[in-house]
Amino acid sequence: MTNDESTFLDEGFLSTETESAIPEFRDANADLFQLAEDVNRLLMRIAHTAMDTAKTNLQSPESVAVRLVLRAAGTFQGAVLLAKRGLVADARTLVRSCLEDAFALAALITDPEDFMSKYEDDFNGATKRQLKFVTEQQFGDAAQLKSLTEKYNNTPKGSSLTPSDLAKRSPLDIQYLMYQRLSNDSAHPSATSLAHHAYRHPGKSGWCYSWQVADEETNAATLHVAIQAIFPVAVGIVDFLKLRSFDGTFEPVLERLEALPPRGI
Q: Does the model's pTM come out above 0.70?
């Protein structure tokens, strides 16, 4: 092994050994990776068209919608990149983030005025909670604390805009179950997610610690759910901004997805 090469034992998922396995991971689910890449190319075209179309003020519903698409696109790309290296929990945590963006966009499209009001409340709530923490911890000198306390007192109370609330305000409420499953399976340090790092020998007593490296079926489930999560984002922004040049582009993609064996987390 040369100085430029490293094993999984040395560097884990950053190793050259893992990098060299990317073609193997991709070939094991070639249809799903190809579909994910095709969906990404379509989403990028939609995103650029949306940016050219929604030339408006920063806090308009249209601007917020486009920025949700940009956030979701990057998150989806991150999930695909991680899946190519066999990372499971990390890819699925990003898929969960895609669902949050999908919930937010769907809620905005359903009722723009209500969403923008809640969006502002969420900003104020987050700001006030952080200011409260800083002042309670007595960070900074006396002058800084005085300034932060005044800012805290002048900031509206606000509230949190949670994924659960967003899902309930949108037609995607049924997908909140998948969000919960991804939270428990991967995003949170739960008993379920930690179980992925313990290997029980079939037919034997005992267990050992384990790095969670994706097998074919695990990666297939991750990619399948990722495409399901990002699809409403693409459809939603096209409908909201009336991007008619993309009419008829979604049906072939959906048909390819439905033709593949169903998978779930």
A: yes
